Amino acid sequence: MDPTNKAKGPSPHYSLYQREVFRRGGKSGHLPSFSVHPEELQESTKKKLNDRGYFYANSNAGLGWTDRANREAFYKWRIVPRACVDTNTRDLTTTLFGHKIPAPICFAPIGINKLYSPNGELVPATIAGELGLPYCLSTASSQPIEAVAAANDKGPRFFQLYMGHDDDVTLSLLNRAWKSGFDVLMLTTDTWQLGWRPTDINIANYVFYYGGTVGNEVGASDPVFMQKYGKEFKTDSGKWIDSSVWHGKAHTWEKIQWLIQQWNRISGGRPFVLKGIQNADDALKAHEVGCTGIVVTNHAGRQVDGAVASLEVLPDIVKAVGDKMTILFDSGIRTGSDVFKAISLGAHAVMVGRLYVWGMSHEAEAGCRHVIKSLLADLDITMTVAGYRSISEDVFRNKDALRFNPYGIPPGPGEHAKL
Fold this sequence. Notes:
Layout: H1 16-28, H2 38-45, H3 51-58, H4 65-76, E1 77-79, E2 94-96, E3 99-101, E4 105-107, H5 122-131, E5 135-138, H6 145-151, E6 157-161, H7 167-179, E7 184-188, H8 198-201, H9 217-220, H10 223-235, H11 239-245, H12 253-267, E8 272-277, H13 280-289, E9 293-296, H14 310-321, E10 326-330, H15 336-344, E11 349-352, H16 354-386, H17 394-397, E12 402-404
C-alpha cells in the first residue's frame, strides 16, 4: 500500500483508505469508532437507534427467509482468483445512463432517513456527491426534493417514484424532480403496499401516523398535493403516505407506459427505470414498453417472504435483456466481494442501502462516509488481489471469474458454516 505507487488506471486508488485507517491507528492511536464488518455493524446500530429506527431499517417480510436467501445466494458463487496479473492498471469506472462514474456503486433509495440521523437524506446525498456516485432519492424521503438536490450539488441524481393514483400529484413530483436535477426516473413496482413485517407490527412502527411531518416531507412540500389535500393532511398525517406512496392499489403495464410518456415529455427523453424485477419475462416486458433499465431486486427481502434471491435470478435476466437494457442489482450487498460477484454476473452497477443507513446511524456524515469508502476500498482490494484489472474485461464479466457451488449455507453471526 505504498502511496507513491499510484494506480495507473482511471479509477481512484480506493485501496489507500485501508492504509489511511492503519496509519491513523499506528501514529496516534485513533481507531474507527465502530466496526464496518457488516454483521457487527448491524448489531452495533441497535445501540445507536431507538426501536423505531432500528427495526424500520432492518425489518424483513415474514420470517426473513428472503433476506436470508439473498445472502445465501452470494455465498454460493465463489470467486476464482488469477495469479501474476498486473492489476496496478485497473478500471472500476463505468457509464450509467450517460453519467461516467468512478465505481459501479449507487446509493439505493431509502425513505425516512431522519430515523437514522437528524439531517436525514441530506447525509447520504452529500456523501454521494463527494464521491461522485449516483444518489437515488425515495418518494418517502424525510427531506424535500429541492433540499436534497442542494446537498447533492455534484450528482448524478436519480428519483425513485412511488406512484399514487392522482395523476396531478404524480406529474408535480416528476416536474419537481426534473427541475432539481434528478435526470433518471425509477418506478418501484413491488411496494404498492408494505409487506407483512412482524418486527414492525410488534411496535406499530409506522412513523407517518404519529403526527408531524417526518416521512411526509415530500408531500408537505408539494404544491399540488397540498392544494388538493392540505386540509385533510392537517388532521390526518397519514394522508400523504396512504394516498400517494403505499396506497395498496397496484398499477399495470398500461399505466407504466403512460408514465414513461410523461417522463419523456418532461425530461426530453431521459432514462426510465423499473425497480422490482425478479423474472426474465418481466424484464423483457419492461424493455417492450420502453424502459431504459431495470433494477433486479426483491426490496432486500422486505416485501415477499420465501421469495427467490435477487442474485439467484440475475443470470437469467441478464441472458434475456443484458444486451438491450441497463441492469442495476440490489438486495443483499454487504462487501466488495458482493459487488464483484453481481457485476461479474452481468449487472452494470449495484445499489447499496442498509450499509449506508447503518453508517449514518453511528456518526451521520462521517459514519456514512466511512462505510462507503470502506466498501470502495474492499472492492478495489478484492479486484487487485484476485487478479482482475477491469470490471469490463471479458474474463471478468462472462462468469469466468466465478464458480457456482450449490452446497452449504453462509454462517450466521458467531456460527461456523453448515454443510
